[in-house]
Every structure is written in C-alpha cells, then in structure tokens.
Amino acid sequence: MKIFGHPVHTMLVHFPIALWSLASIFDGVALLGYQEAWRASTLLMGLGSGIATIAMLPGLVDLATLPIKARPTGQRHMSFMIVAWIFYLLALVFHIDRGAISPTPNLWGFALGAIGFGCLAIGGYYGAELVYRHGAGQISDKSSR
What we know:
elongated; single chain; mainly alpha; two-stranded antiparallel sheet
C-alpha cells in the first residue's frame, strides 16, 4: 500500500519502534527509583500501540503482495510484531491503576514490556530482511530516483 509512491507501512513503523523502545528504557529507569519515568513510559507505550495498530493494515496489504519467496519472512515478521504489540498492551494494563497511570512502577509492567521489546527486536530483524534481502517496500520506478 503506497501513498504518492511511498510505502505507508514503512513510513509508520518507525514510530512504534522508537516509542516502544523508549518505553522499555523508561520502565527500567523507573524501577531504579525515578518514578516520573513510569508516567512517561505509559504514555510512550500507549502512543506506540496506537500507531502500531494503524500500521498493521498497510502491513497486511503489503504481506499479501509479497513474492512467494519472501512470504515466510513476512509471516515471521508479522508474527513477532503482533506478539510484541500484545505484550506492550499487556504491559500497559500493568501501568494503569483504577483508570489512571499507576503512581509506582511494578515488575510485571517492566517484564511484559521487556518481552515485548525482545519480540520487537526479532520482528524488526525480519522486517529488515524483507527490505534489504527481498526488496519489499522499495520504490521500483527507476525514473523517480
């Protein structure tokens, strides 16, 4: 799926990757005693999860149009990213207490986010494989270069 000749999924995925990565770092900082980092982490996780949800539709469209040879890599990428999304949503649940951001960090929120980050890293590896090995999402019109 493209807008003005540029792949939409590729444009969007940088945001959840950055936001979730920062959220995981802030979770660790919060556990070290800087409790305000917990609030920031919660906001970063929420934004990352929302943008990831938006990025999924063009990703599914792109997956369906991949060459047969690239589809197993695309399916692995999608699987790890969906699992990362689920773990970050679960971590977000542990960041919320009675409808508000929990004032104190907890190990469950940190652990679930850490697992999400691991899945994010593996899924990102497969995403890079799609781009750099299989040429997914690259502009094929040589006249526009």
